[in-house]
Task: inverse folding
């Protein structure tokens, strides 16, 4: 990780305090390199960026030789001989440079997602670690060729409905069930907390699969890292799609874990979660129910539990779903 100029200025202060120690004539004699080209200039902040890789790539600890030449832990681990300083060839190896460590730990930087609502300031050396799991990381538009810049889900919701004209349906957390028309295309689902403050963005995508009928899936649109935060690889939400084709007696439902994505690579092309027969014109609809299963409590109010026999009858087989996905390839 390259040092910014502000951080370099702070480290300069540290080296100025110790300049008298390193500028002694004894140091100059010992600092002569094996080729005899003369003594290098006294150590400065720039010795941090003249390590073998030219930049600091790793977290503290930082090391220094007996003279004061500094090297980051990443470059220190790449040295073939750690018993000699890489700058002045002085024997004695390296020891921890606690002063620089403290400076690096104390320097904080704003999150790169500050423009999207993140107010966190993180230690400089761990800024990438925070960004990888930041819940304010931007999401993207999946439409090919769309020029929408990456943004927060609120901006993405307005873009979906305003620019692309995708219909939107509002769902409430404690009553997270809604009926929508069963038709090819995309529909935005906005799940709101009961107080109307927090919200989650979902995308219903339905496609034609020829004689097999319609196939579809529901995706949670959020930063991929944030989606997995605290839940490992397990989905945070579960979805139940129920279909009732009036006049034919056809009833079915499918329950599946909702995949989370930031849509940076477009819509996932490796599978659909439910299959429904081709509906007559303007006649069919599906009921979509969302459950927050992150608490791990199957009996919670957000996840009604069906009798086992009923669950077994209503789940769509994975074989049928996989077959429908193949039809779209």
Result:
């Amino acid at each position: 990780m390259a040092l910014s100029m502000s951080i370099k200025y702070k480290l300069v202060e540290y080296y100025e305090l110790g300049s008298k120690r390193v500028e002694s004539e004894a140091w100059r004699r010992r600092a002569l390199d094996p080729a005899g080209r003369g003594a290098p200039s006294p150590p400065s902040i720039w010795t941090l960026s003249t390590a073998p890789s030219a930049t600091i790539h790793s977290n503290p600890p930082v090391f220094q030789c007996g003279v004061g030449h500094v090297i980051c832990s990443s470059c220190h681990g790449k040295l073939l001989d750690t018993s000699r300083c890489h700058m002045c060839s002085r024997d004695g190896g390296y020891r921890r440079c606690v002063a620089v460590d403290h400076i690096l730990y104390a320097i904080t930087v704003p999150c790169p997602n500050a423009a999207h609502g993140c107010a966190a300031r993180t230690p400089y050396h761990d800024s990438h670690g925070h960004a990888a799991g930041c819940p304010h990381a931007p999401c993207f538009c999946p439409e090919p060729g769309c020029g929408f810049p990456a943004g927060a889900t609120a901006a993405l919701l307005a873009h979906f409905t305003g620019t692309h004209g995708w219909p939107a349906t509002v769902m409430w957390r404690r009553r997270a069930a809604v009926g929508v028309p069963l038709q090819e295309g995309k529909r935005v689902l906005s799940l709101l907390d009961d107080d109307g403050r927090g919200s989650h963005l979902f995308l219903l995508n339905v496609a034609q699969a020829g004689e097999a009928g319609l196939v579809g899936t529901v995706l949670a649109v959020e930063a991929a890292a944030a989606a997995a935060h605290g839940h490992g690889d397990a989905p945070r939400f579960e979805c139940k799609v129920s279909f009732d084709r009036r006049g034919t007696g056809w009833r079915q439902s499918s329950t599946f874990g909702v995949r989370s994505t930031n849509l940076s690579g477009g819509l996932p092309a490796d599978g659909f979660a439910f299959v429904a027969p081709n509906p007559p014109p303007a006649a069919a609809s599906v009921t979509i129910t969302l459950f927050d299963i992150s608490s791990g409590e199957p009996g919670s109010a957000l996840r009604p539990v069906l009798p086992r026999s009923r669950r077994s009858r209503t789940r769509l087989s994975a074989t049928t779903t996989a077959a429908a996905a193949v039809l779209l390839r």
